[in-house]
Amino acid sequence: MATATSLSxxxxxxxxxxxxxxxxxxxxxxxxxxAMAPASPSKGAAAVECSPSPRRQVxxxxxxxxxxxxVSRPAPAAFAAADGKFMPVIDRKAGYSFVYPFGxxxxxxxxxxxxxxxxxxxxxxxxxxxxxxxKEDIRDLGPPDQxxxxxxxxxxxxxxxxxxxxxxxxxxxxxxxxxxxxxxxxAPNFTRHALGTITIANGKFYTLATGAxxxxxxxxxxxxxxxxxxxxxxxxx
Length: 237
Description:
The protein has 237 residues and is α+β, with helices and mostly antiparallel strands. It folds into 2 domains: 46-72; 77-233, Protein Transport Mog1p, Chain A, CATH 3.40.1000. It is 22% helix and 31% strand. It has 4 helices and 10 strands, in the order H-H-E-E-E-E-E-H-E-E-E-E-H-E. The strands form 2 sheets. It has a 7-stranded antiparallel β-sheet with strand order 3-4-5-9-8-7-6, sandwiched between helices. The radius of gyration is 27 Å and the shape is globular. Residues 1-8 and 15-81 have low confidence and may be disordered. This is PsbP C-terminal domain-containing protein. Pfam families: PsbP (PF01789). Residues 1-22 are annotated as: Disordered.
């Protein structure tokens, strides 16, 4: 079982401090609807026709508001998978959101803000960590490959594991820079294939990491990419 490592970048050259009864069926009669020319209503009839009841007004207004909300409200990344295969996490106090696979359980790990994992496959997990920083942009720390390499070797993997950075790149979401990367960490009896994404916002350095056993990578990689792609900084806290 992999050991969760608390994020500490102090001393690693990145300039950052250290730090869950039946009713009978009714017979329906056929109804024929014919178009008819409207009759000239009396004044009283017009009042009944044109002035809906207060209850109807409330129902119509409520439906209109709900419809407008559905049309105008942007779909957040936390609801990226609406097919029920993922669960959203939205932490407005901490300032982030992401999704994780349905069925994973939240566990408490010292040094991590949130951790969700598969109880049967313990290497399948996602964790998020935050530490204070005076930096304002992830690019202030260096290019993606250098920053990812330092994190993978010194923070995201135990020192006894052999690590390999496969890819690192910069992405932009709502004008904010994120570094995303892929790596493997080899232990004596298993290899973990993992993904990560990092960014700086709200005076914090955010790190989200997820992965799986190498033998299950082909089965899990799409879900893991969904997790990483869903990570987003919310409005400033």
